[in-house]
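Q: Hi! First time asking for a complex rather than a single chain. Here are the components, and I think there are four in total. Is that enough to go on?
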Amino acid sequence: MAQVKDFLWKPGLSVEELVENMGNIGFQSVELKKAADVIVKMKKNNSDIFLTFTSNMVSSGLRGFFAQVIRLGLCNVIVTTAGAIEEDIMKATGEKFLIGKFDSDDVELHERGVNRIGNLLLKNESYMNFETWIYSALDKFYAKKKKWSVSSLLREIGLMIDDKDSILYQAAKNNIPIFCPAITDGAIGFHLYLFQQKHKDFEIDVVNDFGNILLSTSFDAKKAVIALGGGISKHHAILCTLLNGGAEYAVYMTTAHKTSGSMSGATTSEAKSWGKIKDDSDVATVIGDVTVMFPLVMIKALEELNREGFLKNATS
Amino acid sequence: MAQVKDFLWKPGLSVEELVENMGNIGFQSVELKKAADVIVKMKKNNSDIFLTFTSNMVSSGLRGFFAQVIRLGLCNVIVTTAGAIEEDIMKATGEKFLIGKFDSDDVELHERGVNRIGNLLLKNESYMNFETWIYSALDKFYAKKKKWSVSSLLREIGLMIDDKDSILYQAAKNNIPIFCPAITDGAIGFHLYLFQQKHKDFEIDVVNDFGNILLSTSFDAKKAVIALGGGISKHHAILCTLLNGGAEYAVYMTTAHKTSGSMSGATTSEAKSWGKIKDDSDVATVIGDVTVMFPLVMIKALEELNREGFLKNATS
Amino acid sequence: MAQVKDFLWKPGLSVEELVENMGNIGFQSVELKKAADVIVKMKKNNSDIFLTFTSNMVSSGLRGFFAQVIRLGLCNVIVTTAGAIEEDIMKATGEKFLIGKFDSDDVELHERGVNRIGNLLLKNESYMNFETWIYSALDKFYAKKKKWSVSSLLREIGLMIDDKDSILYQAAKNNIPIFCPAITDGAIGFHLYLFQQKHKDFEIDVVNDFGNILLSTSFDAKKAVIALGGGISKHHAILCTLLNGGAEYAVYMTTAHKTSGSMSGATTSEAKSWGKIKDDSDVATVIGDVTVMFPLVMIKALEELNREGFLKNATS
Amino acid sequence: MAQVKDFLWKPGLSVEELVENMGNIGFQSVELKKAADVIVKMKKNNSDIFLTFTSNMVSSGLRGFFAQVIRLGLCNVIVTTAGAIEEDIMKATGEKFLIGKFDSDDVELHERGVNRIGNLLLKNESYMNFETWIYSALDKFYAKKKKWSVSSLLREIGLMIDDKDSILYQAAKNNIPIFCPAITDGAIGFHLYLFQQKHKDFEIDVVNDFGNILLSTSFDAKKAVIALGGGISKHHAILCTLLNGGAEYAVYMTTAHKTSGSMSGATTSEAKSWGKIKDDSDVATVIGDVTVMFPLVMIKALEELNREGFLKNATS
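A: Yes, that's all I need. Here is the structure of the assembled complex.
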């Protein structure tokens, strides 16, 4: 059984050294270090890794890091929400997100045409530019075929984008499918609807994508879930690995707690009862803000995997 | 400005009296009382009320209360997730949910074929019975037509069900549409997929439902949102009222906090910056477990509305 | 094993009926109902009940309810903090607390001489009036004797107060000791210090009070803890029952979570490892705001105990 | 206004670089970076820094880091609780704390004589060794004088300890006073009580220490508060800086939220209404587990201060 050890700083301390030390500090720092170990293990054991995140994380600067993580081969399937797709495109097409405050004068922001997501700010203008972009894109896609699964549409968008920090770009380039089971839950839903009104034979097939995500891995493959935040992204990844026999590894990272019985707060322990996580899985649940916790966990894993040659397209 | 008043119990105290007193206690009890007032106001002012809830609330005994709230005319549009649909059907067809513990031996539960949702338990068997039921239902629907929007499918299911405590039943009977923007995110998604494999021309049109939810209210109508928990249900209702000019009233109830920038934790203040909630809206954000907070808030509102004759199908 | 049952409202529903129903709803409502049962049991089994609460709860309207709970014989020992003492006195001497907002303009409040505690407001003036009152009281106490334990001082204050809704008054009148292990952590600490500067032989003996709280119960007595919120009040009650062999019953109510390893978030399960709660104890941990949760739990218990004649000074 | 920037990893990334980047990520990472900046500013502007922490943080491996922070001159006054004192002594005298699990079988732990603090474990035996140590120490102190303020007692203990990773040792060696307004709230309270029973003239003067903490800074000095966790430690530091005219700088770090009106969850905004934080203060509130957040924040500050020569006894 590991001992608590006094943590000491020394100048120039690296993130890797800090997280290594955290394994002996206590409380969430211990879970954080364990999460990094589980990610190393799932990668080394060649698992199909499902990475899920929510829209607000793409509003944040984690967006480029997600793209990097995809490029380095740390995930095989992505599940996210409509907002994440929209904001990745906005950023790829030059829209700026600003740092604001949690306690803002929201009426005043609204009057200035500024939207708030926690302490981040986004102009109405960015939504208008997105509208123009997406209609033009839909025209091109429709010219190719009338019926699209969501994942094939997102891949097509990724191929149109020219931004190495884009999630859609890196996913398309590295053949990583992106699933978005609630594609209509965003501005893009409205645009799809208007487009369909004009082109009655235009069709988005969400049912077909259920098959696609099932076939993105197999019963025999080792499977792993890295769920950042909660909601349907997390649920969908767990569901689909379950239908394929269950995941061997799982890392959940969330600010929600299990006490309200929500999916967002469900821990890797609860997942065992669902057969979602196999009984002998290597699992970690980290409670905390993903903008802080995820870089720490993933950097620790990347450093180790990089040294041992497990990263694709690795930074030298 | 209201004063803090010492709360005192007297034997036989009613829920209405307690919540009335809570307005002068402090902290969340004040917000709770305000939430009841906002609900009374939205109903009296004849708003189109969007009620959203998450799947785990339907696992809980709130399910019958939601059905009652629909029957009494306290909501005009429902937004929820796939799990909520499944579990309402399971309960309507006789499946039992049990009260367990948050800290369970999950491996042992799994071996016994029991799934855990927080401190609630559900047998694998119930999922199997649901499978049989839904395939038979899909056969009937398919015989009628090949292409379904989600809301029309859910209405059809509601018409098949014979259980006055069912959400789907009461919604269908009272002409309240149920929207489920991520219908494939559940066991039902798998069943739809298998059905579609057999019947290639069977189609679920989610894009069309975006139009249906938009048309379920209008720009001129007064609109209101009661969002229980977070996730896409909450987001979808806010989005759709926004596209119709914004809601006048909003009650959010959640265990999430705004500090992580998530939709689940977003407050009614943030919504103002999105123009989601109009600047002068009547709003309340209650932090707490919905299984406790919602009955208190809604009962307070129901008592007052009942007395003043604003309830449909009212209990005498 | 209990089943989930659909909750249904009927007009005039009482708090007791609601909480009874909550036992079959799920998540925190189940824990809440259990907490009420544990309180009934601890009282019927004639336990020495330690009630602990934090200062902000006395800022709120729970203050009068605490006084009522003391009067009705539902606690034998109280542990709280300095702020709770001060604010009980302020209220007893006519100071008003107002209901404000969590998101206030705090600079503007400060300029108006108003202090904020969450969504409650208190004027600087009230602190000044308290200062006058406490100096006059200290003069009287000092005339009686030079050396005081905290609990004897608080009892003396209680005997001076004439307000049936006061905690100090009801505690003194009903011979319930109030312990305050950090009496100097408040404005009162400053006043005691100034008084001691003038009267060098004036002495507050906190060590002696440790003996007093130990002797307030016994090894053989059944012991119980109702801890509202966390901090040293909760810790002190657990510590003192532990030194007397451990509590048989415990109800913890808090918004904190166990994931940070704090005392405030510690559950009744953790307490078992400390021998704090005996292994076979009847325990419940309710997560939620005490201003909502405590009235529900305690009213349910009071109704049952009242009917069966277990309340002192009972409301007829 | 700062922009959101895509975060990208590169091999060997230092903690300083990561936190620098966090200022442009969003949500809590932004607050975290701001907290580091506020600490740098308070130190460069020569403030009297009040550092507060709770007992469980000393159970964790942060204990050695706190000692290092004291040695490097990053705090001038410490406020903490009795448990923190006890556990610092236990560690200094060789007791081991182990890493366990949040979900333990607590009855089994109790039977093995093991106590749990979140996911940390401590043997009963360590308490017994502490008892022997403290009685022997009290004998020595009593031989010197009969009446002790808490801070002078803690200083005396620090001078007896020989462990450079000890908080008490570094505080004593660097003339940093430690205040503990609830010294009796722990095993040490029991030991003090038994000692006083034997030596009736032995006296702990908590009132005098209120004067000592007031005089540890001055009205004219710039003052700053770094509050880790909540409870009386946080409250006491805020109170004492307030009585000296208020703090210019404040960093709060906590897992509690403001929505329950507790001191633990009170933000630096609320503090403005109390005049606790002066209106134009530089402040940051970081929501998250201190075992992760504090090392990040403080390392960022230490790196910068070290480079610019602001650290005492600096690591070369």
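A: The first strand of chain B starts at residue 48 and ends at 52. Let me know if you'd like any chain examined more closely.
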